[in-house]
Design brief:
The protein has 506 residues and is of the alpha/beta class. The protein has 18 helices and 19 strands. The longest helix is centred in the first third of the chain and has 30 residues.
């Protein structure tokens, strides 16, 4: 690709404007040719995974976007902006048409003797329409004027209350989620029945997502010596495969629900507890388990309790994404659910395994109508996201969930905002809907009062196709809050494109 100096170097060289514009045009043409050629090569490697009609074109645009974003484009963006042209900052859903439009406009400006034709308007809006269509296929329609759907995690009480199910839908829920980590098929069937009944009465298409528990690693039984109930910086925590060690030697102990993780843990490996509230590193690998030195904790410490999440960033735990419990639950899920949530997906092979399991239970035709929601929770899943998307969306309705709780712990909270943006961009390039999850309006749901930060976070979630709320005593208020917020935000923003409606604040 033609090396391109930044704007400051351009000024220093005092290149005549007309000559500079010709250079920019040459670079655009070469960039376009490279994107097309390299993108075709990436698509060729994906062909065997693409069985679904219409996805090949979307996969090709994804390939083009990957090629484009491997390049440093900021100097070129600056040059295009100075010419009053698109700086290509919103081309995710239409890579080649956007390059063609900018090239054609610049060719007209410099009066090139062989200008490119402008792409048809249909090509420029096709990406946006494909994302909208695929979101509706996978997730169902949004209520009212909203573009963003609301998903709510069902409390177990819905099994006994058709009224509660109706209230959740009336408050704005477009989809519902059942967490398979809690309850059993008899209870889930009652929950589904009440939701389906409420949806029929409201004359709405409400999809049901059943979220497989996955190989979630948690504390099970804990034992703490007197005076050591809270973990503080400098303390030691013994993580155990089973049983307990002598209390006088190890004052704080917790058994781990996935004993196999100790086969991969080594000294220096980072360990996080309770969604990142306590962090440390392994200082010794023992026969009983692993000794962790606490390096990060709240000022008052954290009480050690059972059933708290454990994360081991950077450690390959060597456990399958589908557990024995998941496979047993899948017998019910494949029959009753519209979508299956897949926890701790790591790569395309994990998606293929779930697809094969669905085929085995309900047949290929029915299985290809069941949507898959891949929960992105680890750095490895982020690295493999293009292949995960192609494997999933190449066969059936597909969506990506940004599971920000575990993802933030795994990659570090400092990088979460950056990575969730990249996930949104990549999914838009493939015209795949995104579910923004974990912690949305947590304060409002739990305590009836949202913080300023939570409201800002909720407003930013409007760039996704769906936002998930967890259950809690004030979830109805949270649904109503988001319902109104997303209507207002939709007047200002569509994905990351500002919409310039008339402002009347001053």
């Amino acid at each position: 690709m033609i090396p391109f100096p930044d704007a400051a170097e351009t000024t220093a060289r005092e290149t005549p404007p007309a000559a500079r514009q010709v250079q920019v045009l040459a670079q655009l043409r070469e960039l376009r040719a490279e994107v097309q050629a390299e993108g075709a090569g990436i698509l060729a490697g994906w062909e065997t995974r693409i069985r679904r009609s219409g996805f090949r074109e979307r996969a090709l645009n994804l390939a083009h976007y990957i090629v484009l974003r491997r390049r440093e484009l900021r100097p070129l963006q600056e040059e295009l902006m100075l010419l009053g042209l698109s700086s290509m900052g919103r081309l995710e859903g239409r890579v080649l048409p956007s390059l063609d439009a900018v090239t054609a406009a610049l060719a007209a400006i410099v009066r090139d003797p062989h200008p490119e034709p402008f792409p048809p308007a249909t090509e420029m809006i096709q990406g946006r329409e494909l994302t909208r269509i695929n979101a509706e296929i996978a997730l169902g329609p949004a209520a009212g004027p909203r573009r963003v759907r609301l998903m709510v995690t069902l409390p177990l009480e819905v099994a006994d209350s058709a009224t509660l199910a109706a209230e959740l839908l009336d408050s704005g829920a477009d989809l519902v989620r059942i967490n398979c980590a809690h309850g059993e098929p008899e209870l889930w069937l009652a929950m589904i029945g009440n939701v389906r009944r409420a949806a029929r009465e409201a004359q709405r298409d409400v999809r049901i997502l059943m979220d497989l528990a996955g190989p979630k690693c948690r504390t099970s039984a804990v034992r703490v010596a007197k005076g050591h109930k809270r973990l503080r910086v400098g303390d030691e925590l013994l993580l155990l495969k089973s049983g307990f060690a002598p209390a006088e030697q190890f004052p704080a102990q917790a058994q781990c629900t996935l004993p196999s993780v100790f086969e991969s843990l080594g000294c220096g490996a980072p360990v996080w507890l309770d969604e990142g509230r306590v962090g440390g590193s392994v200082t010794a690998v023992l026969e009983e388990g692993a000794l962790v030195q606490v390096e990060t904790a709240p000022p008052r410490g954290l009480r050690l309790k059972p059933d708290k999440g454990l994360n081991f960033p950077g450690t390959d735990l060597g456990v399958p994404a589908l557990t024995e419990k998941d496979l047993a639950d899948l017998d019910f899920v494949a029959r009753e659910a519209d979508l299956v949530g897949y926890s701790f997906v790591q790569d395309a092979a994990d998606i293929a395994r779930l697809q094969d399991e669905l085929d085995a239970r309900v047949g290929a035709v029915r299985a290809q109508r069941i949507g898959i929601v891949a929960k992105i929770e680890t750095a490895r899943a982020v690295r493999n996201l293009p292949e995960i998307i192609v494997q999933g969306a190449g066969r059936q309705p597909f969506a990506v969930m940004i599971a920000r709780g575990d993802l933030g712990v795994e990659i570090g909270f400092a990088r979460l905002a950056e990575i969730q943006e990249e996930i949104l961009w990549l999914c838009e390039a493939a015209h795949v809907p995104v579910i923004w999850a974990t912690g949305v309006l947590h304060g409002l749901i739990k305590d009836g009062q949202a913080s300023r930060g939570e409201m800002t976070d909720a407003a930013m979630s409007a760039r996704a196709e769906c936002v998930m709320l967890n259950k809690g005593p004030h979830v109805v208020e949270a649904l109503r809050c988001l319902d109104g917020l997303f209507v207002r935000m939709g007047e200002h923003l569509e994905k990351k494109t500002p919409r310039l409606r008339a402002l009347k604040s001053w």
